[in-house]
Write a structure and sequence with these properties.
heterodimer, A: mainly beta, seven-stranded mixed beta sheet, 11 strands, globular, B: 113 residues, mainly beta, five-stranded mixed beta sheet, 0% helix
Chain lengths: 114, 113
Amino acid sequence: EAQVTQNPRYLITVTGKKLTVTCSQNMNHEYMSWYRQDPGLGLRQIYYSMNVEVTDKGDVPEGYKVSRKEKRNFPLILESPSPNQTSLYFCASSLSQRTYNEQFFGPGTRLTVL
Amino acid sequence: DAKTTQPNSMESNEEEPVHLPCNHSTISGTDYIHWYRQLPSQGPEYVIHGLTSNVNNRMASLAIAEDRKSSTLILHRATLRDAAVYYCILRDDYGGSQGNLIFGKGTKLSVKP
């Protein structure tokens, strides 16, 4: 089954403790991205990747890092999480960044930073 | 990407058609109209997209006004599973795009049995 998977689905952590949220897709997609969803602010893009070893900042990249060493994986790294990063995170992928390619979203990771 | 305006919420009865409107008066000639939906506790899901002509797929139909300043997503027979927030999104298609979808507040659709 074609899908985007994320782990963990739920995470409660404390300020400053480094964490990684994994994202993996099995559709051989070139384009992957991370969004965060907050009440009243909708979904906003954090980082995106056009292909392996090519990543770039989205609209709200502060406090996050990403890497794209393999085509299927695109982990989101929070080196020193803070309470304002408490949010619902979604990973997405598509064949390319072009508009005619639909984007597939993962099930989400709910992160709480105390 | 241009801005869209959608009603905050709509209600429908099960097995009846639903017409979800979207206004995009500042749409440019190269903006595609996309619809995504987000079911409760799930990630967004692609529904349909179009440029000028009406489009149909297994999930829905998209009717685009002749002047392209508005569009309507049509669910032909609403089911309880269609209860979700529906987002109308405009996306310009150019090679330098960062590929992000700009989600507004969307329309929360409730379906009554």
